[in-house]
Amino acid sequence: MSFAFCNGLVLSGVHLFDNPKNHIHTLSCNGAVFSHLTITAPKDAPNTDGINIAESTGVQIYNCTIGTDDCISVLNHTSNVNISYITCGPGHGISIGSLGKDGSVGIVEQIHVSHSKFTGTMNGVRIKTWQGGSGYVRGISFRDIILDQVQTAIDI
């Protein structure tokens, strides 16, 4: 599912499974809300991210169960995102990035992850960057997260 140039999108109570690629992708959305979603993919399926947020602001993601490549990926030029009460795993956890690919400028700010549980993931939360890129990641918080059988808790 892809959503572009939207305002006030609400997606709730949906079950998505086994997509061959990313399950939900937003581009340039303002004030989107994703809640009460269940998203799953086979443990070894690559590029099956649960929710990708790109070039968006004011996004809320809460009360979701996600077991995909990256449970949630916050991409370039995204700000003011609140992620809470997520059950994540298996997969790679919640990622900010990848940022700075091919020398590009990566900017992500005010991303808050709280009250979430990661089980059997490669990472809990991480910030992914490419060598040679520029930009910044700031105003990021990870609070009240539970990590169970996670290989790397926080990867920066």
Automatic annotation (TrEMBL):
Q: What is one process in the GO biological process aspect for this record?
A: carbohydrate metabolic process
Any idea which UniProt keywords this protein has?
Cell wall, Cell wall biogenesis/degradation, Glycosidase, Hydrolase, Secreted
Query: Is Methyltransferase there in the keyword field?
Result: no
Q: InterPro entries annotated for this entry?
A: Glyco_hydro_28 (IPR000743), Pectin_lyas_fold (IPR012334), Pectin_lyase_fold/virulence (IPR011050)
Cell location: Secreted, Cell wall
Q: What is its main location?
A: secreted
Mind listing the GO molecular function terms for this protein?
polygalacturonase activity
Under the heading Pfam families, the entry gives: Glyco_hydro_28
State the family named in the UniProt similarity comment for this chain: Belongs to the glycosyl hydrolase 28 family.
Name of the protein: Putative polygalacturonase
Task: Give the organism the record lists.
Answer: Cinnamomum micranthum f. kanehirae
